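User: tokens in, sequence out, please.
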């Protein structure tokens, strides 16, 4: 597992309790990391709290996973709703005019599972499809720049990052 990728930022972990009677070996970095892990905290929050360099952080995290002391928690992000779609429509209208609403409806309807909102993992796909509808390169880039902050999770210090 690559703990330094941008998708790893949102990973969450929880401590696990095994019914097996087996010994575990912990070094100081592993203990520090294990104490900081809480299911509500993202990987970046934990990294900032333990204040380890990136290599030590990754090594300790991998050891904890390998020994079965922690596990990845799959957090499902809620769908992007009306506010996201309205912002898309406004930014698209700046680039293509009043046809923006129709283009948005057409492309959003093509995304599986979008009835209750756009799944966050499919939002970039929708933005790319809408950007392809903008004939003028300058306006296309402006649209993408305006929407990018909506697709990017808040930045954290990163694994091993220091405060």
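Assistant: Sequence out:
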């Amino acid at each position: 597992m690559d703990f330094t990728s941008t998708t790893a930022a949102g990973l969450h972990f929880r401590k696990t309790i095994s019914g097996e009677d087996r010994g575990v070996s912990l070094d100081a970095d592993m203990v520090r990391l294990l104490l900081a892990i809480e299911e509500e905290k993202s990987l970046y929050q934990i990294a900032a709290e333990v204040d380890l360099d990136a290599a030590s952080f990754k090594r300790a995290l991998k050891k904890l996973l390998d020994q079965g002391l922690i596990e990845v928690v799959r957090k499902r992000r809620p769908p992007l709703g009306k506010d996201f779609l309205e912002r898309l429509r406004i930014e698209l209208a700046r680039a293509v005019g009043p046809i923006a609403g129709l283009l948005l409806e057409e492309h959003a309807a093509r995304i599986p599972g979008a009835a209750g909102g756009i799944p966050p993992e499919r939002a970039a796909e929708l933005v790319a499809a809408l950007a392809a509808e903008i004939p003028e390169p300058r306006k296309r880039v402006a649209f993408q720049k305006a929407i990018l902050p909506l697709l990017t999770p808040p930045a954290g210090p990163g694994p091993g990052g220091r405060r």
